[in-house]
Design a protein that fits this description.
By secondary structure, the protein is an alpha/beta fold. The longest helix has 25 residues. Strand 1, helix 3 and strand 2 form a beta-alpha-beta unit. Helix content is about 40%, strand content about 15%. The strands form 3 sheets. Strands 3-2-1-4-9-6-10 form a 7-stranded mixed sheet. A 3-stranded mixed sheet has the order 5-12-11. It has one domain: Spore Coat Polysaccharide Biosynthesis Protein SpsA, Chain A (Alpha-Beta Complex), CATH 3.90.550. The N and C termini lie far apart (about 70 Å). Bound molecules: 2-acetamido-2-deoxy-beta-D-glucopyranose (NAG) (3 copies). One 2-acetamido-2-deoxy-beta-D-glucopyranose (NAG) binds next to helix 5.
Amino acid sequence: MMKPNTSLNGHRFIFTCFFFIIFLCILASINQIRFDNILTLSRCTFTHTSNHLLSLSSDDIRVLIGILTLPDHYHKRHFLRLVYGTQSPTGGQVDVKFVFCNLTKEDQQVLVALEIMRYKDIIILNCQENMNKGKTYTYFSSLPEILNDTGEPFPPYHYVMKADDDSYFRLQSLVDSLKPLSRNDLYYGYVIPCPSMDPFVHYMSGMGYLVSWDIVAWIRESDIPRKHLEGPEDRTFGDWIREGHRAKNRYNAKWSMYNYPEPPTRCTHELWPDTVAVHLLKTQEKWITTLKYFNATQDLKPSKLYHIP
Ligand SMILES: *[C@@H]1O[C@H](CO)[C@@H](O)[C@H](O)[C@H]1NC(C)=O
Ligand SMILES: *[C@@H]1O[C@H](CO)[C@@H](O)[C@H](O)[C@H]1NC(C)=O
Ligand SMILES: *[C@@H]1O[C@H](CO)[C@@H](O)[C@H](O)[C@H]1NC(C)=O
């Protein structure tokens, strides 16, 4: 038996890294990237080899946010892509996707197909658009099959959310709030009714709630949701959880999730830094106020190409 030669392996590793960097540099100069960019590139390559490979590992949480919407809501999707495409949380991967039922019109077959080619962020379920007739069930129960890819890590997502298209989620705050929580048997959201702070009594508001992957798998397999499809979707969801004795782990995200302050109700809260989501952004004005408050444009890079006061 030969003992593995660790020092030889170490040298081989360093050589591989070295040639990889050279390769990147050649690639960069072919693409006429300036010298400082090459430096940045090699610096990031070094960080990658030293510690980043380790930190990229299984610790990062994967979250799917499905925004339930309608095929014809092109402008809404365009706007939400701006809102979410400009956020890049660390410590977690958050995929935002738009979810709707079967297309019904010829123009949709062209326009939605183009969107998918460009953005790859649409899920079309096998259903007819409906309110309170099981779209939420179809969404959760279809995911284990839709996302069943043996080449990918399992579970495909640690957490799956259903969100409203008039909610604004701050992805870094969401990831940070999920970090300490269980990845099993979890039900997370804004507890209904508004004044309640007890997540074990009722259900989570449709502004956006999230469950761990094992509950998604349970929704697919269990008879309890399948036999109870009709009714206000989010309350029905809470009924399944109660009847199925699921979600021994619950997290009430109130008051980091709340309704927009105007008009004031028992569900509203003023905008404040400790925010995961703001709901009921029904007008452009409310969106703008919210995006400004949370400094959504602070990472805009200066350039001679534009001037924004
Ligand atoms: C949705 O579309 C698929 C494929 O076009 C079809 O097989 C299915 O029956 C449709 N479902 C509903 C509920 O209309
Ligand atoms: C996922 O794929 C595997 C292998 O193809 C199959 O055995 C399993 O039943 C699939 N699961 C679901 C939920 O579709
Ligand atoms: C937005 O930026 C301002 C100015 O830098 C800062 O004072 C404020 O705390 C920031 N707001 C939030 C919610 O981070």
